[in-house]
Amino acid sequence: MVSLVTGGCGFIGSHIVDRLLKEGHEVRVIDNFTTGRPQNLDHQKQNPMLQIFQKDIRSRAEIEPIFKGVDYVFHMAALADIVPSIQKPWEYYSSNVLGTYQVAECAKAANVKKLVYAASSSCYGIPDEFPTRETAEIRPQYPYALTKRLGEETLLHWGQVYGLPVITLRLFNVYGTRSRTSGTYGAVFGVFLAQKLAGKPFTVVGSGEQTRDFTYVTDVADAFYTAAMSKIVNETFNVGSGGTYSVNRLCELLGGEIVHIPKRPGEPDCTFADTTKIEAALGWKARVSLEEGVVRILENIDYWREAPVWTPESIDTATKDWFKYLGKE
Fold this sequence. Notes:
Layout: E1 2-6, H1 11-22, E2 26-30, E3 50-53, H2 60-63, E4 72-75, H3 82-87, H4 89-110, E5 114-120, H5 143-162, E6 166-171, E7 174-175, H6 188-197, E8 202-205, E9 211-212, E10 215-216, H7 217-229, E11 235-239, E12 245-246, H8 247-254, E13 258-261, H9 276-282, H10 290-299, H11 312-318, H12 320-326
Parallel strand pairs: 1-2, 1-4, 2-3, 4-5, 5-6, 6-11, 7-10, 8-13
Antiparallel strand pairs: 9-12
Helix pairs in contact: 1-7, 4-5
């Protein structure tokens, strides 16, 4: 089998590459290294079954030859984070929507067996029900969420019209080793781990009683592999841990002092995936508990040593546009 992973040097993508290589696949990676890190696959450098191409998914001319002979496509490449999506919407739209269009066209031309897309649970916005089912109303609150949803819509439509065999997986709060360390203020684990290494307090938004469906990255990689190998097409599934955990509980597990910062608009008080559908259709279920996942991360905490250390003051500066555009006066 030949598999292609867009964004394969990124956080989740690199774990999918590991899984595919373990299963005996020949793997091709497309990554422009905007957020992905080549070091994430350093341990696979000598593996003859892996090829890495530094290309941009927005350029069909660049990427189409790489699709030749590919059986499975795992489309992970995307720009993430809320604040920069508000500040630079075109970059997000061109990458997450138009880039996904180019991937869809290349996959269609290559007659692939399956394309599995990393959709986002942020498409639900602030849901009415918990756990949240795939049938919940779509309410993106910021450009990142919108562009990930439009990418999902594009692929499902290509499945409907052109017969492209697609599965989209809506991911809930993925964490684990190799999560991003970029200079952009974003995912809670990267922020907290850098703070822990620097001996600084964890910057907890609001009361810290808000809960998140923290899902460990190897479980997510397993969901992608299971979806690709299944006979199911043109479906959407939630991928979550089966539970929801408070940010205060996360701080307890990581161990450290806390400082509170203002609650932010457009963020739900709870994220919690209803995984009934994926469990029934694919037999997939998360295996790694939050406690076990945090232990694994702390064993590899040096990975975040060069990550920026955020303070209440620097977060306030970084999130001004968040409050400006999403705040309800």
